[in-house]
Amino acid sequence: MSIDVIYRSLLNTIGDTLLSDDKRKVKQYIRSAVAQGSYQTDVYGLDILTRNFNTALIVADEIGLKRAAILAVMLYQLVFEQSNSLQEIEKDFGAETAGIIHGLIKTHELYGKNAAIDNEHFRTLLVSFAEDVRVILIMIAERLYLMRMAKSLSSDEQRLQIAAEASYLYAPLSHKLGLYKIKSELEDLSLKFRDREKFDFIKSKLNETKRSRDKYIAGFIAPIEAKLQTLNLNFDIKGRTKSIHSIHNKLLKQKIEFEKIYDLFAIRIILDTPPEKGKAECWQVYSVVTDMYQPNPKRMKDWLSVPKSNGYESLHTTVMGPEGRWVEVQIRTKRMDEIAEKGLAAHWKYKGLKGESGLDNWLNNVREVLEHKEDSPTELIDDFKMDLYDDEIFVFTPKGDLFKLPKNATVLDFAFAIHTKIGSKCVSARINGKNVSIKHKLQTGDQVDIQTSPNQTPKQDWLNMAVTSKARVKIKQSLKEQATKQVEFAKELLHRRFKNRKIEEDESKLMRLIKKMAYKNVTDFYAAIALNHLDVNAVIDNYLDQEKREQENTEHADRSVEHYNAPEINNLSGKEDVLVIDKNLTGIEYTLAKCCNPIFGDEIFGFVSTQGIKIHRLNCPNAKSMFERYGYRIVKSCWAGKSGANYPVTLKVVGHDDIGIVTNITSIISKENGMTLRSINVDSKDGLFQGSITVMLSDTSAMDGLIKKIKAVKGVKSVSRY
Q1: Nearest partner of 618 among 643, 600, 592, 596, judged by Cα
Q2: Percent of the chain having pLDDT more than 70?
Q3: How many CB atoms lie within 10 A of CB 571?
Q4: Topology (CATH level 3) of domain 647-721
Q5: For the whole model, what pTM was predicted?
């Protein structure tokens, strides 16, 4: 679409949202900025003006934000490029618009140098989020547009990075904020660019079964529709097919074939009724459906009585339809459906209704996490994502106060949810009259009475029990306070012993000793002293021994320095020439992951682990999990120059049970230049053999050539790489 068409579509969508003079002023601002060259292309090569207008269209039409947010999307580039000031924007469009622009500029500065968000700036992103949630809603809209345009990007690396971000950051955020439709689209597009083969397979299967699926849905709906019409209810019924991403997850988790998935779709019944009648009519429809079709009691979910913390309200049941197929039925009002489709944005329209306070509580938790500034970016992301939970449980205090917690939350989480002091002193609980430990997992409906002790303090293993970010943050704070006290005590003790033994303490020598003793940091060293894991006198004895050795080495060096020859440095495996990591860096230490055994020529990525950077193949069986859960640890990597080493490759060969075939294969390998057979294992059954052959070779070209030659051996049925 041309920019004029997009602009007209945007104006039609926002309708009377803008003030009478807004359109004229916006046009004037943008024309002036275009003349000054403020609108060029972004880091992805996309036209910025087109991107912003399309983002504004998504913000208005698919999320439902109003004037201030729409104007902010259309104008923030002008402030970012300093064509106009925030003061000018505030004067012409108001403080609310200027405030959102301020938040957008902060978040977009994160993308100034890198195509993908840098995890070190994640806190800044969340701070903007905590200040005004609309900033992140706009960021989600922009990411959705970017994902829709990803196929036009010239760089596969950029496509992979934005797909990973969409999966591990923006889709969970969309889910938490109630943008379920956008969440599903982000997940589907992410899968499309990360694993096109599986995406196309599921899409083609859905297309093949569409006619029979539509016929089944029509047959299922017909009797319900007829019955509801006799009750004079205003309603709409529609079928909704599950997203490709959710079907893909089901195939992976259940390890079944596509044809074995029966719950590919859900039926949604939407009632057009006043708010005061909403609940009653939903239960009335539920009664009609369950009278007509047998319900599964284990699959009934009531989010009418207690909405989710993101405001989601609906009644779900799964019933046995014709042909013995399970069908999920969702029942909600028009108001509930708008909140479900547009999430948080819809709450401003229905301000004050039930469910609003849950979001406020969640935002307070986010702010609390941000206040814990000592956390590393990785810990921050992990703690933040703890609260992006899907399933919730509802538990009560002895007085009947209701608390919402994530599924698998423990007594410890509940204690911290009540108050930090109660959590820190928690020793056990009584649930429904029975004593349980602090690691006991809670269930919906539990009435929990927390037991405390004045002598109790948080322990390190509590972090393995806590699920919520509030509990984890408070536990970490307490542990760090305890560690600080221990360090001060141990420092004073060590200094005093040095003084008692009349030894002059040298800080640099002590640091070298600590490093030699294999302590990760000084805090761990002093903590070991405080906990009596390390004897102070032994430390001083080691200090004196080290001092003596250093002195001897210095004297020896003085005597022989003229005869000293520097050792020749040998680059291991030619890594500096073979692999380039991140921003054209070479010579970085890395290891090749054993789960997928990449070789020169494979499409690869780097993963920052506790053991350093590990190189994985892009189609590694663990790649999906790493991108979704730890996308912020991914670093781009590629092969460079020529292969400087041989790599192990394991091939799976299936063929007729004939010893001559194996002999021919080993003969082929022995004749290949620069290729050696490392191992071979063969099993035979029912006239077939299956062999596992590991070969040392230089690159993917050599591997492809070998596979082609083995396939040509008479009796070989298939050859594939493990």
Answers
A1: 596
A2: 83
A3: 11
A4: Alpha-Beta Plaits (3.30.70)
A5: 0.58
